[in-house]
Design brief:
Chain A is 30% helix and 26% strand. Chain A contains seven helices and ten strands. In chain A, helix 6 (175-186) links the parallel strand 7 (163-167) and strand 8 (191-195). Chain C is mainly alpha-helical. Chain C has two domains: 12-126 and 224-248, no CATH class; 134-210, no CATH class. Chain C has ten helices and two strands; from the N terminus they run αααααββααααα. The chains are: A alpha/beta, B mainly alpha, C mainly alpha. The interface between B and C is large, with 80 and 88 residues.
């Protein structure tokens, strides 16, 4: 992968709600191909909005977005880009709307132009890769939280995107599912951008860390240096270096 | 398929209102007070769903979904649809006060009729249920168009061609609604079959949550 | 986005007792709807415009609304003038436009828009919650009012759910078109809305009974009728009598 090729390049992005509230202020961010980046920040700092912005779900008030080297201006531009970037929502329930698992996983490939038979095959393979064989005809709505999260991941991976965005992937998950997700992510040869509260998780899956606070984004160093110590001193709950 | 204010004659408006009031009273009776929250949330879902528009050729059409509402609610479709229509009148000025009775009749009577006609199909095997669901969605729209046409014709002979054109214009809508109802019922059968038919008016017997116990 | 565009403002109409506004809307609609003579319906339109002016609503959204809801009226204009058997106004080859047909269309157009404008001025200028309470005070059955308020309460929640699901579809490259895949997807989205609504309804009900709900709807709101309200009621009464006179007597 070419580390000079920027898959995501956003410059001086600002986003405010119609009532004047600012969500993102002067955010500039470059994600090179092959990077595995983590994004840390408290709730309400704008992480999810940033993802929605990258996917073209919400327009910025100011600033520019380039995806895969192309300026993103119209919905058409974003539609093309969405074939190559996948986003896994924070809440799996917001992502799953087909009755059965296989139909939900096949939905993406169908939209990309696969025939029903091809889409089914791709879906089946994706489920196998995630150790979800046998889940094809299960009702997505009735799965456990962890299973839903894995299926949501499958629905995006089935499209084989070059870049994977994940919004708080481990919230509310049990240990076993967390481990599975870590394994899957470490086995992926894609560009990653993951937001999370959990330092351990980011330390094990990503290389570079960025932090987000009050709508501003800044680099925060190497993932390996992440460590929380909540009581030791004042900066204990944000990434920092000693000495 | 709303008939705007100021189109229909006084006798038609009054007759429609009378029928609608009676039917809504029946529906309210079957809707026990403690089921009102559930009916309200479902009514909100129906309201939002009716704002969804799907592409059809170069333009788009709004979903009507009175077939599905009938299957889910039975007689309770009358108060639920009446309330949704009041909200549409107040929020969007779609419809109005004098035509509320007729419009409720137009949307809800086919819903209840289709509930009775197609409930037996919905419970059977996949193919029968799908055929039934398609017919339910399509015929609900057809009956709605026919009632609207009747209201116009009873208002005056001059409306004969208008009402025929109205029914004709809805043929395509019927087919699309049939298709959507079919897939929607397929979805519900798999994901939450206890919703079909007559979920809201189900009597709460000793076995709470017992599917299939139906009070019509 | 569903929003109550006209509900919040400061004008004589917004300050009027909501019960009076609802009652006025009902009487005005009925009297206008049964009128069939031009003098009467023109007065009705004039009155409606007056009410709208009093409500000090922004003109553009109102005109936009009018445009959207005149669909059936447009449809009638498209069909009736040609198909009405009457005195020809003018001919276009084999097609004949009947004078009576045009008259009827014009009458309907004026009537319809008069009522719509009055509805906007009188009922859209209060939040739905207030409307519900006003209806309750006007003796609409408690169950129905309760249903109205519950429905209204959850419209926004469910709309958000719908938009989230639609977003999920869009980021997986869903592009609506005239095909089975599209209709199936919309059907699934709608089905999901119903399933979630039913589950949410159960939870709401459980929360309510945990706080002692026993099925009775109790209205917290109280209204009071003021002097200005009496004046408005009188004015409206006179207006309605005027409509009646123009319709039923041979004055004009």
């Amino acid at each position: 992968m070419d580390a000079d090729y920027l898959v995501i390049d956003i410059e001086n992005i600002a986003l405010s709600y119609p009532d004047g509230r600012s969500v993102l202020s002067e955010v500039s961010f470059q994600l090179p191909e092959g990077a595995r980046a983590g994004l840390i920040g408290p709730n309400g700092s704008g992480k999810t909005t940033l993802f929605h912005l990258i996917m073209g779900l919400v327009p910025p008030t100011r600033g520019s977005i380039r995806l895969f080297g192309r300026q993103m201006q119209t919905e058409k531009d974003f539609r093309r880009a969405r074939k190559k970037i996948g986003l896994v929502f924070q809440n799996a329930d917001d992502q799953l709307f087909s009755p059965t698992v296989i139909e939900d996983v096949a939905f993406g490939p169908l939209n990309l132009g696969a025939s029903p038979a091809q889409a089914r095959e791709i879906a089946q393979e994706t489920l196998e890769q995630l150790n979800l064989s046998g889940f094809e005809d299960r009702i997505a709505y009735r799965l456990s939280g962890g299973e839903k999260k894995l299926v949501a991941l499958a629905t995006v991976l089935a499209m084989d995107p070059e870049v994977l965005l994940m919004d708080e992937p481990t919230t509310g998950l049990d240990e076993a599912t967390r481990e599975r997700i870590i394994d899957v992510l470490n086995g992926l040869d894609k560009t990653l951008l993951i937001t999370s509260h959990e330092y351990d998780f980011l330390a094990r899956t990503t290389k570079d860390i960025y932090k987000m606070k009050n709508g501003r984004l800044s680099p925060a160093g190497d993932a390996a240096l992440l460590h929380p110590h909540y009581r030791a001193h004042a900066a204990g709950d944000v990434p920092h270096k000693h000495g | 398929m709303h008939i705007s204010e100021g189109v229909l004659s006084a006798p038609v408006l009054a007759g429609g209102a009378a029928f609608a009031v009676a039917a809504t009273a029946v529906g309210l009776k079957k809707l026990t007070s403690d089921r009102i929250p559930q009916a309200g949330v479902l009514s909100a879902a129906f309201f939002v769903a009716s704002l969804v528009h799907v592409p059809i050729g170069p333009s788009s059409m709004h979903l009507i979904l009175n077939g599905i509402v009938g299957l889910l609610l039975g007689w309770a479709a009358f108060p639920v649809i009446a309330v949704a229509l009041v909200l549409q009148a107040v929020l969007f000025q779609f419809g109005g006060i004098t035509s509320l009775g007729v419009n409720t009749l137009i949307m809800a009577a086919p819903a209840v009729l289709c509930y009775y006609l197609f409930t037996p199909f919905i419970r059977k095997g996949h193919a029968t249920a799908m055929a039934g669901a398609f017919a339910c969605g399509a015929l609900a729209v057809l009956f709605s168009a026919l009632i609207a046409a009747a209201a116009l014709v009873f208002t005056g002979e001059a409306f004969m061609e208008v009402s025929m054109a109205l029914v004709g214009a809805h043929v395509v809508v019927m087919i699309i609604e049939g298709i959507i109802t079919m897939f929607c019922v397929a979805f519900l059968r798999k994901v939450d079959p206890s919703l079909l038919p007559g979920f809201i008016v189900r009597r709460r017997g000793k076995q709470a949550g017992h599917a299939g116990v139906n009070q019509k | 986005m569903i929003s109550e565009t006209f509900a919040f403002g400061d004008s004589p109409i917004h300050r009027m007792d909501p019960r009076l506004r609802v009652a006025m809307a009902i009487f005005f609609s009925i009297v206008t709807a049964v009128s069939n003579r031009f003098p009467a319906v023109c007065l009705a339109l004039f009155m409606a415009c007056g009410l709208l002016g009093l409500a000090r609503l922004p003109l553009r959204p109102v005109l936009n609304r009018l445009f959207l809801v005149n669909g059936l009226v447009f449809f009638i204009w498209l069909v009736m003038p040609w198909t009405y058997q009457g005195t020809p106004l003018f001919t276009l080859g084999p097609l004949v436009i009947a004078e009576e047909g045009v008259r009827l269309c014009a009458l309907i157009t004026i009537k319809s828009n008069a009522i719509i404008l009055a509805l906007i001025a009188l009922t859209a200028t209060m939040p739905v919650a207030t409307l519900g309470h006003a209806l309750h005070h006007l003796r609409v059955p408690g169950k129905l009012v309760h249903l109205l308020l519950m429905t209204y309460r959850y419209i926004f929640v469910i709309e958000t759910e719908y938009q989230q699901l639609m977003r999920a579809a869009r980021i997986r490259c869903f592009k609506p078109g005239t095909n089975l895949h599209t209709y199936k997807t919309f059907a699934y989205l709608v089905g999901m809305l119903f399933v979630r609504a039913a589950a949410r309804g159960e939870r709401v009900h459980q929360a309510m009974i945990c706080r002692g709900f026993n099925g009775k709807f109790i209205c917290l709101h109280d209204f009071s009728f003021r002097q200005t309200d009496r004046a408005w009621a009188a004015a409206m009464g006179i207006g309605l009598i005027g409509l009646g006179v123009l319709e039923w007597t041979p004055i004009i």
